């Protein structure tokens, strides 16, 4: 593999090359246009608006619920609330720790961890997030054993499975790094918890759901997952978050 670094000042010299950034946003689009990139090779502002909507954490809730309905080997709950009173009622009616998530924030960011009861400061955080982003997501904290992900590439409403990603994160959810090992080793390691048949089944079902959820998206994406210890043994949380962009799992 030959890699050639091209400065922004040289982008106009390669008009036919496809530009694949880590992630798209209006500021990057403008910077590329100013550097001489062809406008037809870049996503439109309307497409970027749709991408922002598709990238929200709220989209993972629907797929999680569908997957759990298909197989009782899956676990996890995720709820969207648009009113602070509803968030407080949800937390007060349940035991255990919870995590609250901003709908529009990067993976591992925009989180508030509720240890038992919610504090006044955390309630103020909820009000601010709901005011600015229209709601927030609440989930029970699970007994996580392993972080992993499935990586896909979507094009023409077809999903190609790229591979697994086995990674580590901090106790607060921030990404730390990936394990570098053959795909067969990752699948074997995960299979110690799930058995040999569950992951291929999940992979197939998830590919179908991603195509239906994102019919116009073209590019890489990663679906974060967890192996969890529950009172039913080891289970998979099959859709923690969907990262609609290039990510470190694909790089690894």
Number of strands: 9
In terms of per-residue confidence, which ranges show pLDDT below 50 for 5 or more consecutive residues?
none
Number of contiguous helices: 8
**CATH-level-2 architecture of the largest domain:** 2-Layer Sandwich
N-to-C span? 15 Å
Given the helix and strand composition, which structural class is it?
A: alpha+beta
Q: What is the chain-wise order of helices and strands? A: HHHEHEEHEEEEHHEEH
At the fold tier of CATH, the topology name of the largest domain is D-amino Acid Aminotransferase, Chain A, domain 1
Strand order of the largest sheet: 7-6-5-8-9
- Report strand %: 25-35%
The whole-number mean of residue pLDDT values reads: 92
Shape: globular
Helix content: 25-40%
The description of the largest β-sheet is: 5 strands, antiparallel
Number of domains: 2
Radius of gyration: 20 Å
CATH class of the largest domain: Alpha Beta
Question: Would you write up a description of this structure?
Answer:
- The structure is a single chain.
- This protein has 252 residues and is α+β, with helices and mostly antiparallel strands.
- It has 2 domains: 55-70 and 143-251, D-amino Acid Aminotransferase, Chain A, domain 1; 79-140, Dna Ligase, domain 1 (2-Layer Sandwich), CATH 3.30.1490.
- 35% of the residues lie in helices and 27% in strands.
- The protein is globular and about 60 Å long.
